[in-house]
């Protein structure tokens, strides 16, 4: 497969979980990939070694998406390769009921800084280096449109904000032939939400296909939206959730 050959992708939060699945799939499709990580240095190094074996260029940069200086510096480094595809995958998941006086408000604020402000900053910093016909893809959540249990209001609001930004940015950037779309994963088997977790059987009751997805399922959706096959798709919210939201 090489539908992304000679393209370069910048992926935030690409060292593990869904982000790593996206990095792997983009590389399998022939793209050169630069990805960021925060704490998972060993996983980032292991992923770089794995991708190098595919014969594409790969680089990992330590950068916190919630820190505007760090993400700007990372993009400056990445710009030396050119940036055709931006994937906003970095994100935090922090819960807390609105009436819980013991909520960690600083953690909730950090979630907003990474999930929303960080994405906005990343897009703004990347655009000067993105060519006509570029692709911007954000990773949201089905939680943006449904609240299956208490305490996810702050998280859900951040992902709903991304969906709203996606629709607006598609209008802003249409004249440059830059498409902007968002993918909303459902239950994906990662270390943060394992398929054998304590609540997995209960959550699966809402999934039409009856099983968890894998990070590569999100990666394949990203690689499609990044390709010429999706050149007339923009402003779209794509649920990749096994029918969880049907």
UniProtKB/TrEMBL annotation:
InterPro entries associated with the record: KR_dom (IPR057326), NAD(P)-bd_dom_sf (IPR036291), SDR_fam (IPR002347)
SMART domains for the chain: PKS_KR (SM00822)
CDD domains membership: SDR_c (cd05233)
Ranges where the Ketoreductase domain occurs: 7-191
Matching Gene3D superfamilies: NAD(P)-binding Rossmann-like Domain (3.40.50.720)
The organism's place on the tree of life at top rank: Bacteria
Family statement: Belongs to the short-chain dehydrogenases/reductases (SDR) family.
PANTHER family associated with the record: SHORT-CHAIN DEHYDROGENASE-RELATED, SHORT-CHAIN DEHYDROGENASES/REDUCTASES FAMILY MEMBER
Protein name stated in the entry: SDR family oxidoreductase
